[in-house]
Design a protein that fits this description.
The chain is of the alpha+beta class and 221 residues long. The chain has a domain at 89-220: Orthogonal Bundle (Arc Repressor Mutant, subunit A). The protein has five helices and six strands, in the order E-E-E-H-H-H-H-H-E-E-E. The strands form two sheets. Strands 2-4-6-5 form a four-stranded antiparallel β-sheet, with helices on one face. Strand 5 (210-214) and strand 6 form a beta hairpin. Helix 2 (104-117) packs across helix 5 and helix 3 (122-138) packs across helix 5. The radius of gyration is 28 Å and the shape is globular.
């Protein structure tokens, strides 16, 4: 079925296209070996979007429009996965699924949580994880989570540049979940901005700003 339009009533149709762009003693994280001269990383600036010039359709006295037939339905939009929500950190840890394989960065972060704070509360473990992440983002320490964890003289559980073997169990599962939550920023950190911590039985005499004491650790920036 077609519609007949008067040539004088047909307007020019414009189409515009744009390109789209788009983290020594046990329980001790010291400030030794911090690198204050890491080079700044400059991100490339995206080119300005290109705009195509509108093209006018030629005037005609006959414009045909094919109707949409029932055997050609428009594809239905796929719903986005709902974010994991929980009433407590413990519930969020329980609801956080473990990846089939741990990427190296997640394994390093979970290892720091496990060896430094597996006997602490989940809140304390999360604060330890955030110290590693904060260091990697500070520009004063290595820029990767594994680089931060393996930096010399920082975490005493690292021996000879290697992390000890982990015993599979609930504490390791919790450490993995806490590492994921910290990396995603999906729960409040009670030691915001902390770059250093030590156990309460250690007295390093730091002249740093104390942020919080959670369980057996004291956090500073």
């Amino acid at each position: 079925m077609s519609r007949i339009l008067n040539a004088a009533s047909v307007a020019a149709v414009g189409m515009t296209a744009a390109t789209m762009l788009l983290l020594a003693e046990p329980g001790f994280a010291s400030d030794l070996g911090a690198d204050a001269n890491l080079p700044a990383i400059t991100l490339p600036v995206a080119d300005a979007p290109m705009v195509a010039q509108p093209a006018a359709l030629p005037a005609t006295t006959d414009v045909s429009v094919d109707p949409i037939t029932p055997d050609q339905p428009e594809p239905a939009a796929q719903p986005s996965p709902a974010p994991v929500t929980a009433a407590s950190l413990a519930a969020l840890v329980a609801a956080t699924s473990r990846p089939a394989e741990l990427d190296p960065e997640l394994r390093c972060l979970a290892g720091a949580v496990y060896f430094e704070s597996r006997g602490e509360s989940l809140t304390g473990q999360l604060a330890v994880a955030h110290v590693v992440i904060n260091r990697a983002e500070s520009g004063r320490f290595p820029t990767s989570l594994c680089g931060v964890v393996h930096q010399r003289s920082q975490f005493s559980f690292v021996r000879g540049g290697r992390m000890p073997a982990v015993r599979e169990g609930q504490q390791w599962a919790n450490a993995i979940a806490i590492a994921q939550i910290a990396r995603e920023g999906s729960w409040k950190n009670h030691a915001p901005g902390a770059l250093f911590f030590h156990a309460r039985y250690v007295s390093p005499g730091w002249r740093k700003t104390r942020i919080a004491q959670i369980d057996n650790h004291i956090f500073y920036r």
